[in-house]
Design goal:
mainly alpha
């Protein structure tokens, strides 16, 4: 029997690393952070939040998506153009977070790019999990950094 979901190592290489290279934001830390985030947020399984508005494997809310464009990307012409190329359209909408894995990955990286603190070390599962909690899930969100460190370790190992 084959387990449901995407193959984690292939997802890491073919979607995350490739996408981050295309937008010029690839690093081992960013790749591991984004894989861990997808594991924690959706299990790399759910394309839409079951009881909420979040979309895609990174479970980004449409309001967050739109804010990334309005208050950040629209002031970064080269980066915005790279993200538009991945989206395949001039004015990407939040609905693309479901159907375009590379676009959803790029937008999750953009959300993290806005964080005031540098990324943790690529091999620091505890640090990556805490960073996710603080800058992606938010302090009021349901994520548990101690519990989620295992998912970030899985991301590192993939």
């Amino acid at each position: 029997m084959i387990a449901p979901g995407l193959h984690i190592s292939q997802f890491k290489l073919l979607i995350i690393r490739t996408t981050l290279q295309e937008i010029g934001l690839a690093s081992d830390a960013a790749v591991n952070l984004l894989l861990g985030t997808a594991l924690v947020e959706s299990g790399i399984y759910f394309l839409r939040q079951l009881r909420g508005p979040a979309l895609g494997l990174w479970q980004m809310e449409p309001a967050t998506h739109d804010d990334c464009w309005h208050t950040f990307l629209n002031q970064k012409a080269d980066l915005a153009q790279a993200v538009r190329l991945i989206a395949g359209r001039e004015s990407p909408s939040a609905s693309l977070l479901i159907s375009n894995l590379s676009y959803a990955c790029a937008m999750a990286r953009i959300k993290y790019l806005r964080a005031p603190s540098p990324l943790p070390l690529a091999t620091d599962a505890t640090g990556l999990s805490a960073y996710h909690k603080q800058f992606y899930n938010t302090p009021l969100g349901a994520a548990d950094p101690a519990k989620n460190a295992a998912a970030f370790q899985q991301a590192i190992n993939a």
